[in-house]
Amino acid sequence: MSNKLWHPFTIIKGSPEPLKVVKGDGAYLELEDGRKVLDCISSWWVNLHGHSHSGIAEAIYKQAQQLEHVIFAGFTHDPAEQLAELITNKLPKNLNKLFYSDNGSTSVEVAMKMAYQYWKNEGEDRKTFICFDGAYHGDTLGAMSVGERSIFTEVFKDWMFDVEVIPFPETWFDDHERASKEDAVIEQLENLLDEHPDKYAGILIEPLVQGAGGMRMCSEEFMQKLHWVNRQFDVLLIFDEVMTGFGRTGDYFACLKAQVEPDIICLSKGITGGFMPLGATICSDDIYESFNSSDPNKTLWHGHSYTGNPLGCAAGIASWKLLEEYEEVFTSMELIHQKNLEKLGDHPRLERLRTKGTIAAFDVINGKETGYLNTITQDINLNPEAKHINQRFLEKGYLIRPLGNVIYLMPPYCVREEELDGIYDAILELV
Ligand SMILES: Cc1ncc(COP(=O)(O)O)c(C=O)c1O
Question: Does the structure show a pLDDT above 50 at 93?
Fold first, then answer.
């Protein structure tokens, strides 16, 4: 094992040694010791069609022989143009201008800069974003500022800017208070916008599912109410679809599932099917027009060396074609989750069962407060000797990575129904 590496999101002392992966094949990863594990979380939610998919691999290979990269200021190329066409043709009609970057946090940074500068270009000084509790938008400083303040952000708090935080009306099966929770949030939002109509640059949300905050889900109806407020009060609505994009919620994008037209949308993760780092921020014609000027002060001065990388775009095009080919899979996976979650319904230690599209989640009750550092992973039976839950699933051949006491499943779309059923059997046995 190399001692030259520093791994992300890892407490250095006491964490298990990283497992060496030697191969990926469909929904499975093969470890150095020969074990095969089913990737139930699509390797941090990026993989859509399975590992090492030959169609995407070949597209990258072909593109690499043609043009591996070119500066994207003053130059363009077919893969960037084609992928932008494919994505914007599917998105709501108002979202027409795509700005490339190279990861999810950056796609959010770009969205915030676009929104902030849009108001400046329009002659208004709107500085504050309205965000949701439990949100996660990435690890760069701006993205941290609009996310939930937590152990992740604590040490950097003096560097971060202020935002207005409102509750995320999370819901689950048999939640009888859904509508009242949503109405209370909408009322709070309306009051804020009523009191200070010129203060807020935008409302930023992970639509339908908050990812790292614990796979918390809200309803399509709530998204529509939010859209209504956004139109009434002329504040920008920004959807961070870094995780929810590309089929995850059961439609191509959460905004389509919820039938809502945001002003800006952020994409990454599944954009290349999990092969190459790529990000994209897509904005409305209205926003773009406010930058459409020869005045340098109205220019978006932002860019990255790998912006619009042709290999990433070629992977994106190949992945998009697979998405269209297998549309039936991501639009129907929710039914398989639902069927299995019903089997877990009476489990005494599970609550808040929920599913949206290809994602399913539930909380494990373990007598401790919900949160990232509530490690059921170490102590699911409140027994200090208990084995790490990740370890127990690995022994059964499943890669999971709970978010605190939330266990979730978000498999690649090539997973078969009986494999998915098998994961739930393992949950019944191990939790
Ligand atoms: C909703 C959302 N936004 C942004 C990010 C940040 O993306 P990245 O890790 O590529 O910077 C994530 C990552 O998990 C995410 O889930």
Answer: yes
